[in-house]
Amino acid sequence: MKDSFIKYVFPIFCFLLCSCSASKNEYNETKNGTVPDKYYNPVIPVSVPDPTALRASNGYFYLYGTEDIRNLPIYRSKDLVNWEQRGTVFTNKTRPTDVDGASLWAPEIRYINGKYLLLYSLAKWGKPWVSTIGYATADNPEGPFKAKGVIFSSEDVNVENSIDEFLYEEDGKYYMLWGSFYGLYLMELNLTNDLTITPKLETKQQIAGTAFEGVNLWKRNGYYYLFASVGSCCEGAKSTYRMVVGRSKNLAGPYLSKNGGKMMDNAYTVVISKSSAFVGPGHNSILLEDDKGDTWTLYHAFRADRPEEGRVVLLDQVLWGSDGWPYVDKGQPSIKAVCPEINE
What we know:
single chain, 344 residues, mainly beta, Tachylectin-2, Chain A, five-stranded antiparallel beta sheet, 2 helices, 24 strands, globular
């Protein structure tokens, strides 16, 4: 127990001592006559895979991740850089029991109709695999969350490994995107004012091939950008995970790579791949905007020199080229970068 405390709590204490504003004293660099605020990756130095995040009405950003910390951890930050754990989505008593012995993976958070809606993958490895997508609601981003049941299972939609869900809204309609190495799919949902969700099974359609998982979507200047991850996520220093993208003029596709290849044929454009410092970067959050309007993403990766610490959380700015395509500086995770612009 003592070793666990030192391993997990002490790093959190250390990174909470640092802030973007305090970092001015650490650098002699100047830009336009000023000293820019900087941060170091990882911004969460413990294992919180598959992060999802949003900015709540209280001004804080909230992040949720796969249950390497049991029951889905909740983190809070004012600036996207300094994070503190605020508990978990569920407790051992309140966690969903729809699938016996299952784990909770890859949550997805939204604020709809005055409530916080959290979707999650509830799945169990084995023969056969059992995978479902469920949801929970709360009045507060820190909970308590109440599980409301399963939206659908792999059997319901005839898609093996139905996990890694993403919720997208457009013109008052809600859509689920999901899938993990058995195709990415899109389906319309019925979502009532009290946040009861049922799937419109007849609207299911495949939008990408079998190379992908960890899907999310961002619309910009008339294009839908389909972000996903490819490769092996969870093999420590041997992980080949990387964050990729394709785009389309239509929600249902076809999604194309920068070179015109079809994502249905497993073509893609790489956004972030490994570096000498970080391995297996991927499963990024929905893009988040700072107060300047710049876009940022949170994602997980292994430290190359300490992979045993698990999938830590990194932050990077998503830039947009003159051709409209998103990219990250140098195409790799940053070690040190300028902080997001967040007003007090």
